[in-house]
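dumping this here before i forget
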Amino acid sequence: MFHTRVVLDDTPGLDLEELLNPEEQQRFRKLCLDTSPEELTQLPDVVELHLDQIRENQGANTDVETAEAIGKALLGLLAGTPAVDFTTEERSLIRGAVEYFLLADDAAGDLDEVLGLDDDARVVNSVLQRIGRTDHLIELN
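structure:
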């Protein structure tokens, strides 16, 4: 299936400018693809697989606790609302957050740096705030 990128440059309530540096913002926006409800229902399996990979490949500096919190937030969001109840924009934002979590070489190396997953958590929190699902926010230290 062909995916189009959803333009988020002027999306109100998406606090990317406050949470991410310009490179992170640009990378996230590119990951926000048009996503069908059916595709959204496949994302929990992808999140679970990625969490398994983090657990198996963790290094001395890997923050597995933050990875687990990100996974819990994403899985809770995806399990808590039927995919058809999300708007096109919300599905795109959720997809972008999941895809950003899957990136191992984003702003900070997820497995190599102590704070490597903090940008991923900030992306997820921004999306959760934007779609009004603050019940799944990740507590950042």
